[in-house]
Amino acid sequence: MHTMDKTYYCVIMAGGIGSRFWPVSRSDMPKQFLDILGVGRTLIQQTFDRFTKIIPDENIYVVTNEEYSSIVHEQLPKVPVENILGEPMRRNTAPCIMYANCKIGLKNPDAKIVVTPADHLILNEDLFLDNITEGLEFVTESNALLTLGITPNRPATGYGYIQMSENAENQKFIPVKTFTEKPQLELAKFFLESGDFLWNSGIFLWKQTSIRDAIKNHLKELYSLFSEGIKNFNTPREKETITEIYSGAKSISIDFGVMEKESNVYVMQTNFGWSDLGTWNSLYTIANRDENGNTDLYKNTLFANSNGNYVNIQGDNKIAIIRDLDDFIVVDTDKALLICKRENEQTLTEMLNDAKVKFGEGIK
Amino acid sequence: MHTMDKTYYCVIMAGGIGSRFWPVSRSDMPKQFLDILGVGRTLIQQTFDRFTKIIPDENIYVVTNEEYSSIVHEQLPKVPVENILGEPMRRNTAPCIMYANCKIGLKNPDAKIVVTPADHLILNEDLFLDNITEGLEFVTESNALLTLGITPNRPATGYGYIQMSENAENQKFIPVKTFTEKPQLELAKFFLESGDFLWNSGIFLWKQTSIRDAIKNHLKELYSLFSEGIKNFNTPREKETITEIYSGAKSISIDFGVMEKESNVYVMQTNFGWSDLGTWNSLYTIANRDENGNTDLYKNTLFANSNGNYVNIQGDNKIAIIRDLDDFIVVDTDKALLICKRENEQTLTEMLNDAKVKFGEGIK
């Protein structure tokens, strides 16, 4: 059992458009709203399901593009509608976090908040919830900004890394030396070997006041935009005000805008079985496979002389026959078919742009 | 202009189930009823379109499984409904031809008939119609059974062959020495080199009386079944009678049952650009291809680093992205997806059987 502290809050960031999961994820239905693992719950529902065990539902907030607000409400009926915050445009994580932080601050200035992406995989939920609870306790007793860092098991080039300070052995909460962008392979190998680097999970914990003050220090323009506008929050003018704020705000991540610049930043090293589910191949990595290494998400494919494929065939009663194919991604929806060698899926965004040129924007 | 002789008749054989074109062709909609070339007319419509230029519509007959009679009527509204002959079960070509021959004989014993498959490709229509007209004239003045033989251009193993008699140079109509089944590759190469062998097009020309007498001589049981039943033709009891006849008839081809045994058999050597469109790969052989050798039937595929593929993606506004794929067949419908190396498509029937075991008969 976890404690249900009324001052604990959660902000689920659900603004992504997920083009790397085309054709299943499209701009009118991004990845976080899909049951991309085929388990019966969408990714955002799985995220909610985790946090609802330790955080009161009325303290769970979702920030998303306003276009998706109704999807969030449908998928998370237990989240109060006033906690679903619609963004008028995409401005990366800093404005998103600031918006939710202002709303929570108006309700409870004593709030302790965990901020999380909507669309990540967490396998060991018990460990995860223990970590979150410990982390919230830690930030309650300090003004620290805390992140969760995952012990890397391979030189992944798709993740950002967090470098821990030296001489931090046996500490649970370790001061952060640097945040890094996604590295090239050689650098990622060096990170892995050094033992000082963790994957940046994008999960943050802090007091409402701590992150407010850090934004005030490091993102002055953003802070003053919100300071000006906050008088209209929780009034009929909130939507209009938010549109003005976002129109004037720079697009910037909380990592780059605050975490890298702030000194009072800690990381908790952990390993609860995490993936950002960033690409089809990342799904293949975690999926169940048959004896030939094939993943057949909906169990509707007959394989012959085929190995190492990730196959996702949608549609009622649709089946597939796949012969002589090795190490491919095959994803089929009623709108589009993708066939691509697994190792080349990073070209998907580029191919999608080519497809838009060839077939029109309608393909999304 | 071709003459429109009122004694010329045409029998279109349309009983096939076309499993080699799965998943587009299914048992409820076989290949002959599909626009498998993407030209706007189904194969049986293209066959009708050719013959309607030289044969009166009321003299055109279609023999098909009774399950498909309504499809034939929909697709060929100009063919009188009484000319659409429904077979209660599949019995190969001899009973089919005998049935149509009886019906035509009741209407005009002086009929000269061309019998043709419903689902073949003919590129040079003018030459084809000249051949048919010449052939009908030839059988008018003889009792010969005439076939059309295509000059082979490769050692095809998917076709039957016709061996011409020696010493037949410069004759338009050449006595046939033998009919052969589909050969193995080595034998096919020998056939090609010898110059004595032609592809068996499955198109036959004869007088109604000539084939009637040949069946009487070589397929006595079949002949007597029909002799018994013909009194009920064109009466309300025809359907019931045909079911009795077919139940009692052996399944046998006209080639094996009559043509191989009859002495008065001729072949006309020609080359009007013919394919039996037997498999996906045969469609690839005749299709338009881009500079990378890809066929994209509906022009809705983006290729990257892919060559030599036959791609047929069905569905309104559906698109495909195909990367890193060489020499495959990719066929996608709302019911099924096929991905198979072109050179291995002969395994399709076997894989379909496996798929029926795995997913149930519903896939057809």
Q: Oligomeric state of the chains? A: homodimer
**Helix- and strand-based class of chain A?**
alpha/beta
Q: Reading side by side through the largest sheet of chain A, how are the strands ordered?
A: 6-9-7-8-10
What pair of chains forms the biggest interface? A-B, 37 and 37 residues
Instruction: Please give the count of helices of chain A.
Output: 11
* Arithmetic mean pLDDT of chain A: 93
Detail the poorly predicted runs of chain A.
none
N- and C-termini, Cα separation of chain A: 44 Å
Helix/strand order of chain A: EHEHEHEEHEEEHEHHHHEEHEEEEEEH
Helix content of chain A: 25-40%
The biggest sheet of chain A, with number of strands, parallel, antiparallel or mixed sense and barrel status, is: 5 strands, mixed, barrel
Q: Based on CA inertia axes, which overall geometry of chain A fits?
A: globular
β-strand percent of chain A reads: 15-25%
Number of strands of chain A: 17
> Rg of chain A from C-alpha positions?
21 Å
